[in-house]
Amino acid sequence: MQQEAPGLSRNQKTQGPLAHVYPVILSGGSGSRLWPLSRSHYPKQFYPLAAEQTLLQQSALRLPREQGYASPLVVCSENHRFIVAEQLRQCGVAANRIVLEPVGRNTAPAAAVAALCLRKQDPDAILLVLPADHLLAKVDVFNQAVLKTLTVVDQQRLVAFGIEATEPHTGYGYVKQGPAISADAFAVEAFVEKPSAETAADFLAAGGYHWNSGIFIFSARTYLEELGRYHPDILAACEAAVAGGGDDLGFFRLDHAAFERCPSDSIDYAVMEKTDKAAVLPVTMGWNDIGSWTALWETGEKDAEGNLFEGDVLAIDVRNSHIRAEDALVAAVGLDNVTVIQTKDAVLVLPSDRAQDVKAIVDRLKQQGRDEHKFHVVHYRPWGSYQTLDFGARFQVKRLIVKPGQSLSLQMHHHRSEHWVVVSGTAKITVDDDVVLLSENQSTYIPVGATHRLENPGMLDLEVIEVQSGSYLGEDDIVRFDDIYERGAADPEKP
Questions:
Q1: Within 13 Å and on the Cβ side, how many CA atoms surround 31?
Q2: Most buried among 7, 90, 381, 453, by the most CB within 10 A?
Q3: How far apart are CA 16 and CA 34, in angstroms?
């Protein structure tokens, strides 16, 4: 018997032209060009950069069930699984499934595992593949464009959404349209790499060239057939990863070894540039891939001097600049066309026309073995977050935020003791065989080697100041005995 999509009745599945269209949100990117805000363990799609909702939430909300779409499927890193689930819960979106990648392998394998999962549920599944970190200002135009693609998808075409070029941009790939195959879509004559400024100007003058948005729509059947034709090694690895995977706490976890063996490639390179079934649908929908600080500046509301200021900024004689202050005053004098981004542990300063070079900073941090490309000062965990406030040779002070109904693992430390002071909320604390409830201004002590757990039984956030003392204070001095998130016995890197 065919498996029903979670939360989707058989009657709902047979209604409307979009009933078989499954939004597939790819949330595996690290957003390195938006460093220092975007880090690999908390990348840009989880931030509200241009609206109240995060980029991930905006991606999910622009494809509502009320318009007839099936429930979305999200593909993300297993390190981000609880962040994705919580952000979808906050915006009221019930995912069809959240598929966890043990390692990043680019968009072609991500789309393949999504197609394999959805085809089991619905043999007629159509994948609307879109990155989690793009902006669309004209959502109604996008939804109308999706409807226009369906007759083309029925012709076993793989459709790319092409953005009508408004300037000779050198930061995007281009799609050259060929003969018309419908009233709105064209066969693809060529995919073109990011061009030089002169070539991009020629494209704009010639017409028929569109920016490649990275958004695609195709049937699961057609995509898997074409992937198998041009990259059977990717398809075989993805089939093994799905077959060897399984459900885990509401997520679908791919088989690690099988997916790790999968070659890394994009949908563009692996399939779209090779197939004779590629089509492009030009559309003007206010698209921006937020691929750099300049791109974010372009979308923001600027003052009369062309400045975008965010946070506590004091500026004198500043023009055409983007200054973002996360938690401190940033003062600037006499700047023009400059980007300044301040976070708790890093400050980025560069000419705005060098925004694409931020990745070089991230690469240098990796080469030097530093952690600023991976983590923020605030570390996010499924139960909440922690921030190191101070540290020395034999002590460390942290601020813990535990969300309502959540708890840390039952654990012990070989080398450190801990003092917990409740700042706000109610704490349920286990120390060996004792269980106590503590409220504001109350504290407790956890000796070295004691088995302990911190829980929030209340309805509001629990805030705790933790003072650690001992000969070794590393995060790997954690032995877990029980964990509601099923992390490993000694796995501090897993959020």
A1: 29
A2: 381
A3: 39
pLDDT number for residue 418: 96
Question: pLDDT tens for residues 257-307?
Answer: 999 999 999 999 999 999 999 999 999 999 988 889 998 998 889 999 999
What is the per-residue DSSP string for 223-234?
A: HHHHHHHH-HHH
What is the Cα–Cα distance from 83 to 55, expressed in whole angstroms?
13
Q: Tell me, yes or no, whether 487 lies in a domain.
A: no
Regarding whether 145 and 282 lie in a shared domain, the answer is yes
Cα–Cα distances (Å) from 320 to 295, 303, 304, in that order, read 13, 9, 9
406 touches 384 (CB < 8 A)? yes
Strand-strand pairing, 251-253 and 97-101: parallel
Looking at the fold, whether 333 and 448 belong to one and the same domain comes out as no
- Asked if omega into 23 is within 30° of 0 (cis), the reply is no
Prediction pTM value? 0.85
Task: Indicate the SS3 state at residue 494.
Answer: coil
In a domain, 491, yes or no: no
Q: What is the mean pLDDT of residues 223-227?
A: 97
| Residue 216 CA from chain centroid, whole number | 18
Based on the fold, state whether residues 362 and 424 are members of the same structural domain: no
CA-CA distance, 142 to 62, in Å (whole number)? 9
Identify whether 7 is part of a domain: no
Residues with Cβ within 8 Å of residue 365, at least 6 apart in sequence: 372, 373
Last residue of a domain, one of 303, 338, 367: 367
Closest CA to 253 of 261, 241, 245: 245
> How many domains in the chain?
3
In whole angstroms, what is the distance from residue 95 CA to residue 90 CA?
12
Identify whether the C-beta of residue 463 lies closer than 8 Å to the C-beta of residue 399: yes
Other Cβ atoms within 10 Å of 363 Cβ, number: 12
Residues 404, 426 contacting (CB under 8 angstroms) = no
- Residues 278 and 383 reside in one and the same domain: no
* CA gap 139, 83 in Å, rounded: 25
Where among 367, 390, 414 does a domain terminate?
Answer: 367
Q: Which residues lie below 8 Å from residue 474, measured CB to CB, with a gap of 6+?
A: none
User: Cα 183 to chain center, whole Å?
Assistant: 35
CA dist., res. 172 & res. 291, Å (int): 10
Residue-wise pLDDT tens digits, 436-477: 999 999 999 999 999 999 999 999 999 999 999 999 998 888
Q: CA distances (Å), 52 to each of 47, 90, 335, in order?
A: 9, 12, 29
Phi/psi zone of residue 12: left (φ > 0), alpha (ψ -120 to 50 degrees), beta?
A: alpha
> Cα(267)–Cα(108) distance, rounded to whole angstroms?
4
> What residues contact residue 243 under an 8 Å CB cut-off, 6+ apart?
255, 258
Integer CA distances (angstroms), 80 to 369, 408, 479, in order? 22, 17, 22
Are the beta carbons of 413 and 396 closer than 8 angstroms?
no
Single-letter code of the amino acid located at 9: S
Residue range(s) defining the domain that contains residue 332: 293-367
